[in-house]
Amino acid sequence: MKALILMVTGIILLATTTQQARGNEINRWNDVTLSGIRTARLTPPLSSRALAMVHIAMFDAVNAIENKYSPYATSRTAGQDYSAELAAAAAARHVLTEMLPLQKYAFEYAFKATADRLKNHPRAAESIQLGEETATNVLHVRGGDTAFMNSNIGYVAEPSPGRWVPTFPTFESPLLPLWGQVPTFALTSGSQFRPQAPPALNSAEYQTALNDVLTLGAKNSTVRTADQTEIARFWADGSGTNTPPGHFNILARTVAQSLQYDLVKTAHMLAVLNIAMADSAIACWDAKYAYWFWRPITAIRDSGIDSTWEPLIFTPYFPEYLSGHSTFSGAAQTVLSHLFGRDDIAFTIPSDGLPGVTRHYAKISDATAEAGRSRIYGGIHFEFSNQEGQRLGALIGQHVINTVLRETAH
Questions:
Q1: Which residues contact 220 (CB under 8 A, 6 or more apart)?
Q2: For position 159, what pLDDT does the model report?
Q3: Is residue 236 within 8 Å of 353, Cβ to Cβ?
Q4: Strand pairing category for 358-361 and 347-350
Q5: What is the pTM of this model?
């Protein structure tokens, strides 16, 4: 019964989002993927993996027809008379069905809309087969990831100053402790750009950051402004939402649509973006479990500063350093500014966490910087974790730009 409910819920969600989706077939299946992420309540690392795999499969399918970029997992070529839309839809459906089988009927429902619209295409069957092939290749390449999802490292809390321990109010064991060891999408390893250790507890940098989150991030803060509170909730991206990687996909799609990106450019842009964010999750988790740094709530309560202090938003159950939001932000800003050719593009985006609320930005970097800073307003990160996360994400974004899905010379 539980599985049936999830399937039906997925169909309802997908029916709504695909009817409202704007733009080409890549955008539509991005919407379908985000709906699947919300329904499955995926964590940010698993969300970033799902988005990367779906968009790599769609990119390879479209690129096999258009032959404009270096491929990722499929090197074959197909004729220009194939349907890139059908190939992309078939690729996305296959990957999503394998990853989220409880939502199988929702994905079939979404695919049927594309297949019915293009059923008279002369190469419809071959186009679908192409998409299935690129999806199979991606699933094969990433098949080993599941070994890192539910691994139990036999965690035992070791309370000491600076050391992460399970946090109030749920006191959950650490999430995905081996995710930093997952094979990367473009990096050589999760530790390739590992940042230096967090500042010492007796340093001025740490004390400044502690005071910052202590006052601005408190649930009952009297100094945090209404706008800062909205920022914290707007970018919270918690369980049951698009998650941070999904939020940046919405940002990317919004800007790309304003620039009138076609199917091919959209497929390439979202594939590069999601590869960078998937590697950002792996690299960030590598740092988190290399340093096991405590969360603000532990630092404030256990140090005797305020034994009743609570943050504005829920503290995620894994180590603090680095900020995942900030790492995703740095990667997204670097990739998107490069691919769009500029940073100063104005746009407005919504938030799953604050339905009906939108925020307007004059530049991509304004939004990504705000997303990183939101975690201090929310009371769950220190500013040095934001800054180092942004720096790590930028390094990853530039590495991805330089190494994968490069434009080919003709």
A1: 310
A2: 93
A3: yes
A4: antiparallel
A5: 0.94
Q: Taking the chain (410 residues) in consecutive chunks of 10 residues, what is each chunk's mean pLDDT?
A: 36 37 80 98 98 98 97 94 98 98 98 97 98 98 92 82 96 95 98 98 98 98 98 97 98 97 97 98 98 98 96 97 98 98 98 96 98 98 98 98 91
Residues making up the chain, counted from first to last: 410
Q: Six-digit token pair at 5?
A: 């409910």
What residues have CB less than 8 Å from 346, skipping those under 6 apart? Answer: 360, 361, 362, 363
Q: If 0-12 CB within 10 Å is exposed, 13-18 middle and 19+ buried, where does residue 136 land?
A: middle
228 vs 218: CA distance, rounded Å:
12
Question: CA-to-CA distance for 39 and 60, rounded, in angstroms?
Answer: 26
Whole-number Å distance between alpha carbons of 221 and 258:
38
On whether the CB atoms of residues 134 and 60 are closer than 8 A, the answer is: yes
Computed over its alpha carbons, how large is the radius of gyration of the chain? 21
- Measured at the CA of 339, the angle between CA 337 and CA 342, to 5 degrees, comes to 40
State the first-to-last Cα distance of the chain, in angstroms, to the nearest integer.
54
On whether the CB atoms of residues 405 and 270 are closer than 8 A, the answer is no
**For residues 326 and 36, what is the distance between their CA atoms, to the nearest angstrom?**
24
The burial class, CB within 10 Å (0-12 / 13-18 / 19+), for 159 is exposed
Give the DSSP letter string of 137-148: HHHHHTGGGGGG
CB 54 within 8 A of CB 146: no
Whether the link from the prior residue into 51 is cis, omega within 30° of 0, is no
Cα angle 134-60-141, degrees, rounded to a multiple of 5: 55
Phi, psi of 142 (to 5 degrees): -100, 10
Q: What is the enclosing helix (H) or strand (E) of 384? A: helix 383-403
* The pLDDT of residue 410: 61
Query: Could you tell me if 376 and 212 are in contact, meaning their C-beta atoms sit under 8 angstroms apart?
Result: yes
| CB-CB contact of 309 with 300 (8 Å) | yes
Contact criterion met (CB below 8 Å) for 251 and 367: yes
Tokens for 236? 């919270």
Tokens of 3: 């599985």
Find where tokens 């309370």 sit.
159
The token pair at 268 is: 């390439």
Is 379:217 a contact under the CB 8 Å cutoff? yes
Burial category of 19 from C-beta neighbours within 10 Å (exposed 0-12, middle 13-18, buried 19 and up) = exposed
Q: How far apart are CA 73 and CA 50, in angstroms?
A: 16
